[in-house]
Amino acid sequence: MPERHPGWVTGINDFEARLATGMMVASQTTADVTLDPLRVRAGIRDATGNPGLVRLGTNKITVNPFQAVVQDPARPGLGPFLVTLDSAKDLPLTAADPSLSRIDLVVAEVNPGEDPGFTVRVVEGQRSSTPQPPAVTNPLHLRLAQVRVPAGAGTPTLTDLRQFTAALGGILPVRGDADLPANAAGSVFIYRLDSRQLQVRQGSSWVPYRPPRGSVDVWNPALLQNGWVNYSPPGGSFPPAAYTITEDGWVRLRGLVKSGDVTKPILVLPVGYRPVFQHILSARIAHGQAARIDVLTDGTVVSPYPTDVQPSTAWTSLDGICFPTY
Predict the structure, then answer these.
(1) Nearest alpha carbon to residue 18 among 29, 7, 27, 26
(2) Which of 286, 297, 293 is nearest to 320 (CA)?
(3) pLDDT band of 212, cuts 50, 70, 90
(4) This model's pTM is above 0.90
(5) Residue-wise DSSP of 151-174
(6) Residue 193 and residue 8: Cα distance in Å, rounded?
């Protein structure tokens, strides 16, 4: 029958216990509507210390400690295994062949019929002029790294193959494009270790995450000071002075203002909309001239007109004023 024993009740067997544990791990989607609800994303649990990282040494390979989830991709109904390498492990690297190259794989694999049932080892590849990675026949494995051993006295090179996993609902670390989940639930967030970017699924693509619009990208009316007022000519429709902040932390100003004291601030931006450094920007004023606009770290927006520009109270445009808050 399709119903299984619930977790941690008397009489459950080993794979039912693994299924129950797998409920706490991020899912793996393959577009198989029958078995996908049982699949978990196999991989290393991210932590400090660069878990599972493989390093090349002199005639050896060293694997950092890690914990991971391993599942048979063809039989998710048997449940995933939770494995641990509790200290760094050194593995011998066979010397190079004088005339032929090879590719080795560093793998972590589960062997339920053996003690302790979990092994981290090197799978040595065939020597060839055109070497290929060796096949790993045990489906219960994770690939940690690939080592290319050139012929003769060449220096071996290593490629990181680690795949990471996360708790259910957690943010999934990925190394780059090659590690992106081919299919994923719409609720999955990923963190790109290469670009340090948070991404979400949009259709068939992964795109940078942007927070939902609320106060972001909403124009807030500016409180004008020192005699400055909005410019509203008869029959015109110029925007009133206002400010907004974009989702990536840039503040924008807009509006046409007039009649103020050109030696004093036009407005003061509130906390959260102020720059870290003072910015000198340009604006258009009446008579077709350009003027300087300064935005100070206390939020003051002022136009210190240079001596070679005739101050004008006819109008000053704030359109195009833009600066970061970081």
Answers:
(1) 7
(2) 293
(3) low
(4) no
(5) STTPPPEEEE---EE-BTTSEEEE
(6) 36
